[in-house]
């Protein structure tokens, strides 16, 4: 795998002159941040050696290289999910490659279901912790000491300084945000009412099908992480309704400009 990471990174470097310091992973309905990037190069996933290919209709599937907030960035327009049939190692493969491209920070967005009864549809939640409810861990298997330790510390999965700065930016722009814990499940089904209650009982405020594996791998490599969720539906007793992918995309798209404002400002200030 280590040689595959390096092979993929070498190919990408042959296709762009951008040397990114920031990595970005965009979630369902949250691709609008790309419009803020001064795009220099685009590379479809299928052209990159060893890269998986996104199979979700709302994920376009390419690496975007350019400038955002005065920083050189690489953005994944379309991420990979465990429910697509990929292993957790494949899901997180791009994060490993980003490390070899030189990123120093990782920014992640996602659409998620809210299990905190105080949340509303459209709530913007900055993640300060997570709970791994996937049936595994992307670090299972051979450890590559070149990348990180066998038993990485996870006492600060999300960077405290970036969280505080994001809260300041939100306040400056009159954007209402919450801070909470995200639980990662496999999908592709949305949760049953009992499962929503179970997730809430674990201590989570929101639940989704991504983010946790990518952050685990990033922290293994000591890359500071920032993650933000848009609550697209509620898993709270009395508020649970049938939800389609289109419903998720519509809510995410409405709130996406606010999330983009926070992310862009944060990237420019770190």
List keywords for this structure.
single chain, alpha/beta, 270 residues, Rossmann fold, 9 strands, five-stranded mixed barrel
What can you tell me about this protein's structure?
- The chain is 31% helix and 24% strand.
- By secondary structure, the chain is of the alpha/beta class.
- It has a single domain (2-269), classed as Rossmann fold.
- Strands 5-8-7-6-9 form a 5-stranded mixed β-barrel, surrounded by 4 helices.
- Helix 1 (2-15) packs across helix 3 (93-101) and helix 4 crosses helix 7 (245-269).
- The model has no long low-confidence stretch (mean pLDDT 94).
Blueprint of the fold:
Blueprint: H1 2-15, E1 22-25, E2 38-44, E3 62-68, E4 71-77, H2 88-91, H3 93-101, E5 105-114, E6 124-132, H4 160-172, E7 178-184, H5 193-201, E8 206-208, H6 212-220, E9 225-234, H7 245-269
Parallel strand pairs: 1-4, 1-5, 5-9, 6-7, 7-8
Antiparallel strand pairs: 2-3, 3-4, 5-8, 6-9
Helix pairs in contact: 1-3, 4-7
């Amino acid at each position: 795998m280590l040689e595959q990471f390096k092979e993929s990174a070498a190919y990408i470097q042959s296709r762009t002159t951008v040397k990114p310091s920031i990595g970005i992973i965009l979630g369902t309905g949250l691709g609008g941040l790309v419009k803020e990037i001064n795009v220099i190069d685009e590379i479809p996933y299928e052209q990159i050696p060893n890269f998986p290919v996104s199979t979700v209709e709302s994920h376009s599937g390419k690496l975007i290289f350019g400038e955002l907030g005065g920083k050189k960035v690489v953005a994944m327009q379309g991420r990979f999910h465990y429910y697509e049939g990929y292993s957790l190692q494949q899901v997180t493969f791009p994060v490993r490659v980003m490390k070899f491209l030189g990123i120093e920070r990782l920014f992640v967005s996602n659409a998620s279901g809210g299990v905190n009864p105080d949340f509303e549809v459209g709530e913007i939640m900055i993640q300060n912790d997570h709970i791994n409810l996937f049936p595994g861990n992307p670090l299972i298997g051979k450890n590559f000491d070149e990348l990180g330790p066998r038993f990485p510390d996870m006492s600060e999965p999300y960077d405290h300084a970036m969280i505080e700065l994001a809260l300041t930016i939100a306040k400056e722009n009159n954007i209402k945000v919450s801070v909470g814990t995200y639980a990662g499940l496999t999908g592709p089904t949305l949760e049953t009412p009992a499962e929503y209650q179970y997730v809430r009982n674990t201590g989570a405020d929101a639940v989704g099908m991504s983010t946790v594996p990518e952050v685990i791998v990033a922290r293994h490599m000591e890359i500071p992480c920032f993650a933000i969720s848009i609550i697209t539906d509620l898993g709270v007793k009395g508020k649970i309704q049938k939800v389609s992918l289109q419903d998720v995309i519509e809510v995410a798209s409405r709130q996406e400009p606010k999330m983009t404002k926070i992310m862009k400002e944060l990237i420019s200030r770190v």
